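Hey, weird one. I pasted the Galectin sequence into the form twice and got a warning about non-standard characters only the second time. First submission, copied straight from the form history:
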Amino acid sequence: MLDKLSESPKFRIVLVGKTGSGKSSAGNILFGEKCFEHKISAISTTNTCEKQKKNVAGEITEITDTPGLFDTSMNPEELKCEIEKCVVMSAPGPHVFLLVIRLDVRFTEEEKNAVKWIQENFGEEAAHYTIILFTHADALENESLDAYIEESLELQTLVKSCGDRYHSFNNKDMENRSQVTHLLEKIEKMVNENGGKHYSNEMYREAQERIDQRKIFWSEKPRIVLLGKNGSGKTTTGNIILGMKKEFADTSLTKPSSRSAIVEGRSLSIIDTPQLCDSSMDKKKSETVLKDLVVESDPGPHVFLLVINVKGSTQNTVKCIQGNIGEDAVDHTIIVFTHVDQLSTPLDEFINKNNDIQALIESCGGRFHSSCNVDFANRDLQAGSGSGSLQNVPYTHKIPAGLQEGMIMTVRGRVLPDANRFQVDLQHCSDIVLHFNPRYENGLEYVVHNTFRNGHWDSNYEQDYECPFPRGQSFALQILVTHESYKIRANGKHLSEYRHCIPFSHVDSICVGGMVEVNLVDIQYHES
């Protein structure tokens, strides 16, 4: 046995999770004996990385336990530094990160952010090497894990972010070794899908370089310049980025106008501009505008957002930008398409059928976005990776400033041909303020409206309506926020009203899940 343990391990496993998630217990279940210290505590019992190597189901397996993510006894830099050691201890690199989550306690914001933490600190590639391990599956009693996940859009989103890879341990049946062998099989399958590769020190180094780039980017308080013709939605785009308030006036500009704000904890400046390609603007006026733009964006813009109404003309747009701002401007430009909900086809098809649009996107390095929730912290967007229009489902659109009266939310997509249900949820933390749930079952097609709060569906609020969205067809859903209720329109026609039972200002996200494709999630002010 000692000779065998001297062999290189087949699997190198790193356990990650919030304090109290049961990481150490999971390691003990894997090994079939107590190797890691564990106890119920609000403070992580693992303060430093600990590595053990044992024979598991005939395979040499190495497990590294880590301090709890979001551990309040350590500052973020200390925690990050300690977890960095895990990669070194797992040299040449772990085959899998097991993200451990308990099923017998409430699902919290920390769990929701766990994958994001891993990706931010280890790079987006780390998600390809991550499996979610649910512990205390005995708490589900007679309910299956799949059914439990299906009930929660947040869990669906979490699982989807890890490639739908998950497993569960029954902590009351620790002698059941089949739950261990099945997990090892899933790890082996994932390793094969990754071409037999493991997460490497090189991946980690590249991730740290990107983190450093982002820090530099945000330390400079990025200056974002809005470009576009009148009616493009340029000003509205700026308002939404700044927190969905009317910071910029809707009237036509005669000179550049800037606003600074803290958006999701980061400082930035948005500079709105007059229409530079206005045929009525003479050369002298154009030069004056450009001088003002130089002053407003001093020492220079980090990125240009070229806002384009899909119903408008794009002819000569690139030449106009290059002629007015400079040849290099397109290297720092992202295209934002607006009014996509007015298209009769998905944006993908619209682009493929329009040579001018294709040429425009190509000239801007393939960078485009179809709604206003652009992640400007993502340096890759500036550097060259494009953002397509078809969103992964489940899809979450954050609303940091909450909803306001007069806002209208648009969700556009296609119901899958074999759909049995999908949902559009307005959420506040773990509560669902409005659950819009089309269903196709038992020969019936109908829509359920409801509210989920304090862990229960509200029977007083449930309402049913005939489903207006046929399977296999495109749909457009709009939800208007009024003082008394949400007014819901389906494919341009009024469907229903749903009275507020939780203040609409509390809504922090709109989430779409189920058997549906999503082309657009957008929020604008309703123009009466």
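That's the output from the first submission. The warning seems to come from a hidden character in my clipboard, not from the data itself. Residues 201-219 form the longest helix (19 residues).
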